[in-house]
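Why do we care about 3D structure at all? Because function follows from shape, and shape follows, mostly, from sequence. That is the central idea of this module. The next example makes it concrete: a single protein chain, its amino acid sequence, and then its structure expressed as tokens.
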Amino acid sequence: MAVALALLTSLAYGLSNYIGPRLARDAPLYLLLVVGQGCSLVLAGVVVVGFGDPLPPGDDLAYAALAGLGNAGGLVLLYRAAAIGPLSVVMPIGALGAAVPVVVGVAGGDGVTVLKVAGMVLALAGVVLVARRPLGAAAPAAVVSPSGHKTGAVVLAAGSALCFGTFLAAMGPAAHDSAPWAVLVSRMSLLVILVALATRLGAFRNVAVRTLPLLAVPGLLLFSGTLAYAAATREGDLSVVSVLGSLFPVVTVALALALDRERLSGPQALGVAGTIAGVVLLSAR
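And the structure:
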């Protein structure tokens, strides 16, 4: 059961990371994010009521708010990167946020395993290969977005990884006394930022109500993946669950290559594989 739930986590995250950027091509980005995360906030509230945990101390709430800020930045930058670069390149780089909690832990005195060092090396080497162009030739047209901003997409994806890493690093202490409260408060913090930006940019003007259920799909998939992961950690070995739950870039890349006909050069394909392998090793316990 734990294996199935962990794989369900990767499937849900991978689908969300594919569907979300595609919807953002035709809908205002901030409206898309607000609708999806708003639905997640409601569900998180239901979970808090169901568990009945008392309100945690202020330090936990502060970390949860920080996690929400990191999550907001990560989502915005990742979707911006996907708008100007191929998903098969952007998503594995965005998943490198898993390295940030490792670095924070090592800085705080935690030990580092050979697997995690190998994961960092593989991930960084993969990013270098993904971002480079073949020597002596222009990058193939199918490798870059129509706007030709592949380098910008890599930079934005790296920024999203840093933000997602902040989210992951902050969620640990945030959930010290209550995981449901940590999720709820982080979602509230995230939505405050997104709603403020959406309002300032006029994303709520002329909204077609019939499109809102579709826009909620990426956020609901992310929430479903989070629930599946939480359940998997209770059912099985965390060292197995965490690795299987980190395979979501494989799902997104496979969909992008199969459905969008994205093409990568040989070195870039090797870089994507190395980056995904690095993410898996970084997630190992």
